[in-house]
Design a protein that fits this description.
By secondary structure, this protein is mainly α. 62% of the residues lie in helices and 4% in strands. A two-stranded antiparallel ribbon has the order 1-2. A two-stranded antiparallel sheet has the order 3-4. A hairpin with a 5-residue loop joins strand 3 and strand 4. Helix 2 crosses helix 5 and helix 4 packs across helix 7. It is globular and about 55 Å long. The chain starts with a helix and ends in an 8-residue tail after the last helix.
Length: 343
Amino acid sequence: MEIVLFLEAAVHVPDGFFNAVTSISAGVVAAAGVAVCLRGARRELDDRTAPMAGLVAAFIFAVQMLNFPVAAGTSGHLLGGALAAILVGPYTGVLCMAVVLLVQGVFFADGGLTALGVNVTIMGIVTVLVGWGVFRLVTTVARGKVVVAAFLAALISVPAAALVFTLLFWIGGTAPISVGAVAAAMGGVHVLIGIGEALITAATVGAVLAVRPDLVYGARGLAKPLELRGAGGTTTTVTEKELVTARSPLKPFLLGGVGVTLVLAGIVSFFASSSPDGLEAVAENKGFIDQAADHLFGEWALADYGEVGGIPVGVAGIIGVGLVLLIAGAVAFAARGRDKTRV
């Protein structure tokens, strides 16, 4: 029963899918990646990005609860790596994803504990690297097309993560598979999921751009200086830094973002699709779903987002948002350097 409940809510890799060597190796890669990002995030985190990191991580947690149908009997949800990288930077984005996956695995039995390194590698590092790389490429070729770049970055990051999972499972999976068949199945369904991811990512980035463009890390430096022409033909150039300084305080935006996130997790989550997600559907069709093992914390009250403990999914979601917001925010402020008032 625990396995069924666990897999119904998760797209994350469960315990039992990978052998010990692969799980440990992925854990080493994930730990090294997070360590590198802790140092690299110092160059990204400032007085705007640090509080944004907590909000972005919490938002991704909430939206990951909202499975949407992508094909007959199959659902998908946001991974969020590309979105995190664009909003707060690639280094900070990996940290946000790692916190989300850690909270999901420990408190909600969503993603195996032995597979945490695999999940961080695939859903955190791969999606961020691919998403950020595509985003930078598109904005370099088509300067200023931030929303279009966000759409393409998210679209490509999801099947890329699915194919990396397939490669790892072929190398160290606990069941024999036809790598070609699984790659085709995983790639196909995750292209559809990627379309949903792209729409969510583009809409979110576009909304933040419309309200506070200075809070979109990926858009920094892309805007041309604003020239103001006064009487007598005088021209005044206003830089991006000066525009940011003149903007309204950050607190109202953050409070509004937290409010939206709580609504998504506390109310909209009740309407999420209950169909198997892409990974579960492929695992069922290709015959390796039985390799999934019981989660060590599968009997916790919050397991399966409250299903095990009888907690309404919305309440579990609000608790999760609070945990992620606090942990990700604390990590971001701790990783921030001493002098981070720059724009």
